[in-house]
Amino acid sequence: MIGSPDVVAFTKEDDFGDSFSDPCSLPEEFSVPLFAHAANANPWTKTSFAKFSRDFILISEFSEQASFVGHPPGSNYPKLNFVEDSKVVLGDSKEGAFAYVHHLTLYDLEARGFVRPFCMAYISADERKIMHQFQELSSGFSKASEFLKLGNRKAFANELEKKLKDLEYTRSVLHKETELQKMNNGCYSTQAIEKANELANVEKSIYEHKDLLRQITSYPSRKRKDVDFVQHETETPGDTSVIDDTLNINHSDKTVETESESRKSSYTPQLIKGKSAKCFDKRLKTMEELCNASFFHQTLEQLNIIEKSFRGDLCLIYTSQIDRALLSKQSVTSFLFEAERDSEYGGTSKDFSISSNNPTVPILNLSGEPLSLESYTTCIDVDHVKPGVESMEGRPESSTSDITQETSEAADTETKGSFSSDKSIEAFGGFSPSSLQANYFDGLERKSKVSIASASENASGSVAVPQRTSDGNLVPMDAACCIGQDGFIFEEPLVELAQECCGDTVVNQEPLSLLHGDPALQMDYILEESALAESPNMGLTFSELNTEEVAKITIEDVSDSTSFMSASTSSDRAASPFTYGSASTLKKKKKAGHSALRFIRQYPFAQQAIFCLLSGRTLVILGVDEGTVRKLVNALFIFVPNLGKYGETVQPWLSSPFQLTDLQRWKLIGLQRAASPAGSSILHSLNRYSRYISILDCDNKTLRCPPYKGTLVSHLADHRTQIKRGSTYFLHVQGMLTQLIAKAFLYTFCHHIHLPMDINDQGSVTSRRTNFLLQLGYTVEESKIVQYLSELIKQHYIQGSSKGANQSFCFNYTTSYLYKI
Amino acid sequence: MLRWILGGREAQGTVESAALFIGEEQPKNCFTEMQVLKGHFDIVRFLVQIDDLRFASAGDDGLVLIWNVETGDCLFALRCHTQQITAMTSYTFIRGGNAHTALLTASSDRTLSLWDPDSGNRVQNISDLQSSVKCLLVLVRLDVWLSGGNELCVWNRDFELQCKTVHHSDAGISAMVELPKNFIAAAMDKEIVIFKLNLSGSDIAVMAMRHLADHQDTIHSLIHINDGLFASGSHIGELIIWDSVDWTIQSYEHILWEEPARDSQSEFRLNPQKQIERSIQHMSSDGEYIVAAVGSGLYVYNVLTKSVVAYRRIAHDSNVLHTVLQQDGRLMSCSEDGSVRMWELQDLPLPAEPASSGFFGMFGTFGRSSKQTGPPAKKIPEVPGLRSLELIGDLIGHSGAVQMFLSFKEKGLVTCSTDHLLIIWKDGELQSQLRSLAVFQKLEENQEL
């Protein structure tokens, strides 16, 4: 509602300058700050030459076929190093590609040094998005990385336990054989000595593996000191805690054995040959095997969330972030018409943002832990990042990386081929950004490599091949910033169109993120947040606000263009705003804007219907055809105050008689008209409760409801409105409703009209309340709307967001009239 | 002895304006907020007020639920009775200088229980009674209580049986009222039996003193009017006012409703004034007036002047089950038709005044069909001082018969019904103001002001 994209798009620089003197303009902290940009710079130019149209996430492994030599018994084993993740920004301005790269290490018994380095990268054509959203990206990817690493430690421990079993078994077999050899050939026969050596090797191997197991199981208890990690652990679902318990116990070797025996009793140990098989024959574990399937899927989910969060234009992300930050201050009233916020995520993002709090400049996150040779993080050139830092200061068009010839070559290589081994990194010492760059754009088809493509809807959890949208795929355009260009366009015209759009009418600069924006504004949030005791995000700076909400809003904003298109082309579709249990999202609401617009044009009594909904009188839409009824419900549900997260206050299709209690919870009901006995009892219930409901008869096109006089709703629902687009109309409605909420807020929290002068002062309070509403310019009917909203605000404030099981149901005794078309 | 043939041929529709359906505009109806209480699994028949804040409900599911009238929270569910509750009353006694209110319940499972509504515990219990108890009466003055079934038993506070009467007829005692000088009047089928409680030291004895057999049919209602009078009403509409001391009849009214002449063109004109008897299901009194629920009608009688004050032959669409006379000349009734109606005693308009037609405006296809289609007519009252009973509001919510209601004054009105629900009806404006106060109080607590 606030800081909507339309506002951004229509703001001219001149207007903005003037607005400072205008007393009626928005307070400064609510306005969208403009970035001090070079004049006439095209905000889309910097992304126009990228070879991909959408951001994507790539997961890649630094593979070395030769390095996966396994670990034959008897050979030296390294100590495990628990390396912190490192986060870097890399760029290729020639390719127009910029990436946030998150490095992590997973353990694999068969890998050299037991480690397999991976990186997850968010690749975008917009450099500033990567730079400015670094912290948000970092916290998002840290979360994904934690899932992977947690699962990996579990899987690795399991693997070790199995291996230990094998070794124990092998030892017992060898022992028997040695005894046999001694018996047959004497103690000093060649065979006996050979066997004894073999036995000694196995013994050593057992010792080493036990040590490894000890190391890996001791990890969580060490890490638990970290606040964020603890919180993370607690919020991961049930199976995690079980794992934690098993990992957490400070194992002595014996307990490990006994415990693992009881736990993995089904496992039959296998004999391990003295000399291991050729390591090259071994199939490498896939990421899913490495990380335990459930954690792997959690990771994929998290990556989906990240992709949704950062999809779209940077200004859109900023706008929604501002929007969200402002809304978080309105917890008293935002429940009325705003899409419900997922407050749980506020906590989770907090956990991770702590770790990413310190480095405001994306440099290497050098952890306190000693880095071993195997740790690749040391190898990355720190200098390389510096241009990126500078570019933030005012050279946004500049490259963030030095492009070597090799880089561009590597980047030019077409994507479908598999990664050739000569490009592979032989040793991390020789690792360079350019080769890393090559990894990004290389469609590695190795099974161990996972890429989450932009089309994140296919979150089947399977290992996906990197998708490219270069072959003319339909891409929903990030059109919210352009003037009303809803719908699909091919990506080729996108560039041209975008360039057309940035004429005089469009602001050619994007809003600045709060993080880097007006320090006063930012400070305001910090203060406000900590001051508000009720706020769920108490004490959080803006950067700590959760990414999920960004995700939700962004994806919805972006995909609205799609949904609008589908709504308008297939208008007869019986689109229901809700499927049971699904959240009522902003996307659905915007989609409903179109239906609402058509309803207003079609039905002259739309204002009365909307008045009923706003004043809390249940509206029953009665009809034979389910599709028609659902369509009307879909058109009207945006006017239902306190819709609820899952649209609990709306029942789109009911084919049984409703009860009194139903009127209490449902404010908009789609009801089946049927000739059956059930139908007649439905009519009976309609008749019985007629004083509490308004009835919109789809079939006869009539509305029976109390009369409405006033201008408020006619502004809201003018059938001669010039608004053409559903999403625009939705924003118009949101704007009007915001005004209404502001009045309801004022009415609710004005002391002098509610507090009695003395104990027996009920009458004067009543008259003061009435007079106050009249002074606000409301008619009697409109006062009912404000009073209803005020009651909702009061109940919400008193009871908190948790809905009381026993809510009261308010009504009025007013005469209804029948309106016809 | 008077025979009231109400709504007779001459007086047809005399004082009844036809506007029984009040319409949706009800300015005098302050109940603009409701709260539906769920908890029972069968018909809810009894409501008993415990204190200013709490009440108990009970019914055919054997459950006794204790509620907070302000919040609508169910405080306790008292489960022990295996069959329907047949009687419930509150029992206030002094213990340790403080008044305690407990709850007495009787059930068809032939048990009697005493409950502590503060803890939800069953304090006392008696099972294996010879018959189930149909009515309970607490004598605060003597600190004993009586149970009436097939026999009359007298109990002390500790649930010890003090004495009982011999076995009565199968009909048993259906209602009891306390009379002065330790006498008790009990309704048994067509008779009213006067019992005397003899107190000698700590022993109590009970004996039947008199049988009053003036009613022609089963007595459904027996109420206390004031210190000098009590009243009884029977199945055929006999209303008798008795003297509390010497048990003589002060007044006898036989209320007969005339069958409504449905159609003037009817062929059954020969017998247009068929008089029908309607049962008196319930009566209530404020000491001066009695309101009796007679069939689906209401009848208001002044015991001081011994004259009818107002009546309405058809006050509800179905039998009236419970009535209450309020202080301000208003009364309430609830009925099997599922509604509660509020009435106001109004002076009849002068004869010259044109009759105001009731509001019939129903719009749309869902209009409620009005029972009365005849033209409204107000004629000169044939009885001097006769007033009219005007409908000022109705409460529609229950989908079954409204069994009983209980008023908490400004805190609201509780209704219980066959549909297993209870509804608290509240003054929306007052509630809104209370919520505002709560908001400012919370703001102050959170220091957000």
TrEMBL record, chain A:
It comes from the Eukaryota. It is found in: Cytoplasm. Residues 397-420 have a biased composition (Polar residues). Keywords: Autophagy, Cytoplasm, Guanine-nucleotide releasing factor. One of its GO terms (cellular component) is guanyl-nucleotide exchange factor complex. Residues 388-420 are annotated as: Disordered. GO terms for biological process: autophagy. Residues 20-794 form the UDENN FLCN/SMCR8-type domain. Its main location: cytoplasm. Signal peptide: none annotated. Pfam families: Folliculin. InterPro entries: FLCN/SMCR8_DENN (IPR037521), Folliculin/SMCR8_longin (IPR037520). Belongs to the SMCR8 family. PANTHER family: GUANINE NUCLEOTIDE EXCHANGE PROTEIN SMCR8, SMITH-MAGENIS SYNDROME REGION GENE 8 PROTEIN. This is Smith-Magenis syndrome chromosome region, candidate 8a.
Automatic annotation (TrEMBL), chain B:
The keyword Transmembrane helix does not apply. It comes from the Eukaryota. SUPFAM superfamilies: WD40 repeat-like. GO terms for cellular component: lysosomal membrane. InterPro entries: WD40/YVTN_repeat-like_dom_sf, WD40_PAC1, WD40_repeat_CS, WD40_repeat_dom_sf, WD40_rpt, WDR41. GO terms for biological process: regulation of autophagy. Keywords: Repeat, WD repeat. SMART domains: WD40 (SM00320). Transmembrane segments: none annotated. WD repeats lie at residues 37-77, 103-125, 313-346. This is WD repeat domain 41. It comes from Cyprinus carpio carpio. The lineage of its organism: Eukaryota, Metazoa, Chordata, Craniata, Vertebrata.
